[in-house]
Specification:
single chain; about 350 residues; alpha/beta; Quinone Oxidoreductase, Chain A, domain 1; Rossmann fold; 2 domains; six-stranded parallel sheet; globular
Length: about 350
């Protein structure tokens, strides 16, 4: 085992602080990675503060990881020392269930292993994430990262990027489709960029008029205030797809009315309480409400390659590791455009 430096939450009530964790020696199929950058995801906050329950302390968050390969196992064939690589939201799965065999490891029927606060496939070892100097991951869950793009801006693609890319691909969004993005935050700004790159006509739906300028700069064709009842009436039956990134409680029925016939609303945000969907909100125009959870490894690699080809990255604000607690508060206040990324060189 190797002792490495990290930042951890020791309890739901305490701020994150310096910690030391043990990483396993690379096995025959393992890749050891020196972490250069790690994005700050809202999931990190939920887990550090036990807001989803089930946090296993100490928690070392972080699942938007970009770094350099420092060692590889004898049987590793896809990577070599010095390669630029990424690690996303999970680091292993059973490998033999129907979903794993079909490159949908995120839906592993026997439980995939998340990058942090999760049990490894031995069902005993707890995982620690990217707020650390190094990580060791089995080869099949490591991703190639192009050096064409600024690596710090690539890190959030490992979560925010694939979370939005996957449903856009799954429902075959294409040129001419009318896509509404509900909420312009870490997920929303990536949804706008990716949908626009696919040729869709993108409209940002927001409660905040101050987001209008950003929406246009990110690639949206239109911006609409959802607090204006007349706007909402005018937009009825307008969209083919709605990408709902909002994690605050909101009425799904209000937005379902904006979908045309056979329209689809994809839920990416996770409100704290259940929401009621009226049957007539779906029946009238044969509308659908669906959910989506990141993507499998094959699709995540596809997304990284697509973003490299199209010059798509996340808009980020760089921080040092000792600023992470402040970054959590600013994230909760919506005071980030649009993703914090930790420069892991600051972990000393």
């Amino acid at each position: 085992m190797n002792a490495v430096k990290a930042y951890a939450a020791q309890s739901a009530e305490k701020p994150l602080g310096p910690f030391q964790i043990d990483r396993r020696e690379p096995g025959s199929t393992d890749v050891e990675i020196k972490i250069l950058y790690c994005g700050v995801c809202h999931s990190d906050i939920h887990t550090a503060r036990n807001e989803w329950q089930g946090s296993m302390y100490p928690v070392v968050p972080g699942h938007e990881i970009v770094g350099k390969v420092t060692r590889v196992g004898d049987s590793v064939s896809k990577f070599k020392v010095g390669d630029t690589v990424g690690v996303g939201c999970f680091v292993d799965s059973c490998g033999h269930c129907n979903n794993c065999k079909n490159h949908k490891e995120q839906y592993c029927e026997n439980g995939h292993t998340q990058t942090y606060n999760s049990y490894s496939q031995d069902k005993k070892t707890i995982t620690y994430g990217g707020y650390s100097s190094h990580i060791v991951v089995t080869e099949g869950f490591v991703l190639h990262v192009s050096d064409k793009l600024p690596l710090e801006k690539v890190a959030p693609l490992l979560c925010a990027g694939i979370t939005t890319y996957s449903p856009l691909k799954r429902w075959n969004v294409k040129a001419g489709d009318k896509v509404a993005v509900l909420g312009l935050g870490g997920l929303g700004h990536m949804a706008v960029k990716i949908a626009a790159s696919m040729g869709a006509e993108v409209t940002v739906l927001s409660r905040s008029k101050s987001k209008a300028k950003d929406a246009t700069e990110l690639g949206a064709t239109n911006f609409e205030l959802t607090t204006d009842p007349e706007n909402m009436k005018r937009l009825a039956n307008s969209f083919d797809f709605i990408i709902d990134t909002v994690s605050a409680l909101h009425d799904y029925n209000d937005y379902l009315s904006l979908l045309g016939t056979d329209g689809v609303m994809v839920l990416l945000g996770v409100p704290p309480e259940p929401s009621t969907v009226q049957a007539f909100s779906l029946i009238g125009n044969r509308r659908s409400v669906v959910g989506s959870l990141v993507g499998g490894i094959k699709e995540t690699q596809e997304m990284l390659d697509y973003c490299a080809e199209h010059g798509i990255t996340s808009d980020v604000e760089m921080i040092n590791i000792d600023q992470v607690n402040e970054a959590y508060e600013r994230t909760l206040a919506g005071d980030v455009h649009y993703r914090f990324v930790i420069d892991m060189a600051s972990l000393v």
